[in-house]
Design goal:
Blueprint (H helix, E strand, L loop, with lengths): L4 E3 L4 H8 L4 E4 L5 H7 L7 E4 L9 E4 L2 E5 L4 H6 L1 H6 L1 H8 L4 H6 L2 H7 L7 H6 L3 E6 L6 E6 H4 E3 L2 E2 L6 E8 L5 E8 L10 E10 L2 E10 L6 E2 L1 H7 L6 H14 L10 H21 L1
Parallel strand pairs: 1-3, 2-3
Antiparallel strand pairs: 4-5, 5-10, 6-7, 6-10, 8-9, 11-12, 12-13, 13-14
Helix pairs in contact: 10-11, 11-12
Length: 287
């Protein structure tokens, strides 16, 4: 199916006007949309709205204790940005394992979030970092915005709480505390090109050997990227030792709800989670 109307607005309010009525398909980088539309998974609506020319929807800034990332910021830009590399190294590492350089140059963070794949590379570090999304709409003459945690925004494979007339404009991440520890791991046959069989993100603060504010995120092991809340509660306020590491890794394995597919079986994904959480925590204990 092809669109009857193609629009390329240069202002946010123009784009939101175009989205009113709910019959529009949004085009940003197109790296997911083009593949999905040709396969029939995501039909193109009567209006195709290209948002790449909208001023102010790209870039990374620090403000009010948060790092704001515009939805049109490409994966390549994130990988090289000093704020991201300094304060969000787990996100930078995920970007380094994101597809090919050609895809990183075109694909946007907002597109990866809205695609809502359980194996989305940026979603795991964003979830561990406590990210939230910002959405804009224009129900009448004025532009309105709302925000929600990323963990609430994604509700199923390919499904989000974005309404048809809304546009995701930014991702907001609290600036991590000084002395924080971040880790990211992705397992695939070719980690930089393949869809993840599993991925893990850990964000915590290590104070005198004790872990505080532990957030463990897991991808490709449930219908949506998920938090390992039982493993987190076991680790919170504790000093890492071999017994605790083993117990937390087993808890993470037992929390996930993976499927079997062409990339890995249910059992293999669970064992990968246990082994990789154990390896990650061991590395943190020795750092």
């Amino acid at each position: 199916m092809t669109a009857d109307t193609y629009l390329a607005p240069k202002r946010l309010d123009e784009a939101l006007e175009a989205l009113r009525g709910g019959e529009a398909t949004i085009l940003a980088g197109g790296t997911d949309l083009m593949v999905q539309s040709q396969s029939g998974k995501t039909p193109i609506g009567p209006k195709l709205v290209n948002i790449r020319r909208i001023a102010g929807l790209a870039g990374v800034v620090r403000a009010d204790g948060e790092i704001h990332i515009g939805a049109l910021t490409t994966i390549a830009e994130l990988l090289e940005h000093e704020l991201v590399r300094t304060h969000l190294p787990s996100l930078a590492e995920a970007c380094d394992h994101f597809a090919s350089s050609q895809i990183r140059n075109a694909g946007t963070l907002g597109g990866n979030v809205c695609n809502a794949s359980p194996a989305g590379d940026t979603l795991v570090p964003l979830l561990a970092l406590g990210a939230s999304v910002e959405l804009a709409a224009k129900p009448d003459a004025a532009v309105t915005t709302r925000a929600m945690p990323l963990g609430e925004f994604i509700v199923g494979p390919g499904k989000t709480q974005r309404k048809p007339a809304e546009l995701l404009t930014a991702i907001r991440i609290p600036v991590p505390a000084a002395g924080g520890v971040q880790r990211f791991f992705k397992f695939g046959t070719r980690p930089a090109l393949d869809i993840a069989a599993i991925s893990l993100g850990l964000v915590t603060v290590k104070e005198g050997g004790v872990l505080r504010h532990v957030r463990l995120a897991l991808g490709a092991v449930a219908p949506v990227p998920m938090r390992g809340v039982r493993a987190e509660s076991m680790l919170e306020g504790r000093r890492l030792d071999p017994a605790l590491i083993e117990a937390a890794a087993a808890a993470a394995r037992d929390e996930v709800r993976p499927i079997s597919d062409v990339r890995a079986s249910d059992w293999y994904r669970r064992e990968l989670v246990r082994n990789m959480v154990k390896r990650m925590l061991t590395d943190v204990s020795q750092s």
